Amino acid sequence: MEHPLQVSTGSAGVFNRIRESIISGQYGYNERLPSERDLAARFKAARGTIRTALEQLEQANLVRRKFGSGTFVTYRSDTEREDISEETSPLELIETRMAIEPHIVRLVILNASNRDLNRLEEVLKLAEGTENDPNAFSMADEAFRMTLASCCQNPLLKWIYRLINDIRSHNQWSARKDHVLTPDRIRFYNEDHWRLMVAIRRRDQNHAADIIISHLKQAHRDLLGQD
């Protein structure tokens, strides 16, 4: 019988097949995936293709790649985890982000390489042209913030931020998204993100932290319907 990981074309195909294996439970929570070499052999693909697919799986919060140890599944089915998102309001989520994101930004400035910042900027570009599509902006925003957390080089903070991103996708936020994310507000948020990117490039910790704090305060006001 053919192994379910053996048929694919390109990194997107590899991503989809591994994702299917994880979601279906073939690979359980905290289980180590086969090595890049083994996956390349199974898929008959280049190592670079496998590496790209694994990066995409990590950005989708399905796996965690640990240098020197391998790639481990972080996905849990709803029956395997307590769904704190049911108890967390959008305002409580903003308050939690206020406590964490300024420190993440400071760590990015301290620890991120220029290659990390190039990757962060490429992800930020995904939000361009999404003014009339709240769902597209929200997905791009989540990817940017998850990449930001990754660039801080602190695995625990990155894990915590995965939970925050999971809660942001919950129904309570989705119900308010179209109301909050107007074209003008999306443009404003994107401008804030680019100002943050400039401050990070300049390695200006205080200015970058001020930008993210101001950004989150505005998001808090937007949720309350305040000007």
Radius of gyration based on Cα positions:
18 Å
Total helix count?
Answer: 10
CATH topology heading of the largest domain: Four Helix Bundle (Hemerythrin (Met), subunit A)
N-to-C series of helices and strands? HHHEEHHHHHHH
CATH architecture of the largest domain: Up-down Bundle
The CATH superfamily of the largest domain appears as: GntR ligand-binding domain-like
**Which consecutive residue ranges, at least 5 long each, have pLDDT under 50?**
1-8
Structural class: mainly alpha
How many discrete domains? 2
User: Helical percent range?
Assistant: 55-70%
Shape: globular
Beta percentage is under 5%
| Order of the strands making up the biggest sheet | 1-2
Mean pLDDT: 85
Terminus-to-terminus distance? 61 Å
Q: Determine and state the CATH class of the largest domain.
A: Mainly Alpha
Number of strands: 2
The biggest sheet, with number of strands, parallel, antiparallel or mixed sense and barrel status, is: 2 strands, antiparallel
What does this protein structure show overall?
The chain has 227 residues and is mostly helical. The chain folds into 2 domains: 10-73, Winged helix-like DNA-binding domain superfamily/Winged helix DNA-binding domain (Arc Repressor Mutant, subunit A, Orthogonal Bundle), CATH 1.10.10; 90-225, Up-down Bundle (Four Helix Bundle (Hemerythrin (Met), subunit A)), CATH 1.20.120.530. Helix content is 66%, strand content 4%. The chain is built from 10 helices and 2 strands; from the N terminus they run αααββααααααα. It has a two-stranded antiparallel ribbon with strand order 1-2. A hairpin with a 3-residue loop joins β1 (63-66) and β2 (70-73). α1 (10-23) crosses α3, α2 (36-43) packs across α3 and α4 (90-111) packs antiparallel against α7. The longest helix is centred in the middle third of the chain and has 22 residues, at 90-111. It starts with 9 loop residues before the first helix and ends with a helix.
